[in-house]
Design goal:
This protein starts with 10 loop residues before the first helix and ends with a helix. It has helices spanning 11-49, 63-69, 81-85, 109-114, 124-130, 132-147, and strands at 86-93, 96-103. It contains six helices and two strands.
């Protein structure tokens, strides 16, 4: 009977490296998701800044008449409250890492995004569409950092 014996040089370091991959993957995924959240918040705020500003003269708003004649696909900015409320949160729900981006505590936000009882003027969907490639690249970078 012929037998072969192998001695793998550096087996312990290879084993330790393979054991460390899940931790690296978890931390790099978290960092990437955090960056993606910041990128999306910036883009959503830019989408909300595209709308025309409300101009007040003495008395009622003069702009109201203009926008009935010439509607814009973007929300008008009166106070900037919706834009200021846009934030992100990153949490684990069980084993899932969940990223949420959007306005907080602004009642009319959903109404304008989805078009409930008003013409839809989305700001989240266009932001995601605009930054889709950047999001994919950032996620890929995070995964590559984990396995290097």
């Amino acid at each position: 009977m012929i037998g072969l014996n192998f001695k793998l040089i550096g087996a312990r370091s290879a084993q330790n490296y393979l054991k460390s991959i899940p931790d690296k993957l978890k931390s790099n995924t978290y960092r990437s998701m955090e960056r993606i959240g910041l990128i999306l918040v910036r883009e959503v705020k830019e989408q909300l800044s595209k709308g025309p500003k409300d101009i007040k003269k003495k008395g009622p708003r003069v702009e109201l008449y203009k926008y009935k004649k010439n509607p814009t696909p973007h929300l008008r900015v009166r106070t900037g409250r919706l834009r200021q409320s846009v934030t992100h949160s990153l949490n684990y729900e069980g084993k899932l890492l969940v990223l949420r981006v959007g306005p907080q505590r602004v009642q009319y936000a959903r109404k304008h995004e989805l078009g409930i009882k008003v013409k839809a003027r989305p700001y989240l969907k266009p932001a995601i569409k605009e930054k889709r490639r950047v999001i994919e690249q950032e996620f890929e970078r995070g995964l590559n950092r984990a396995i290097q």
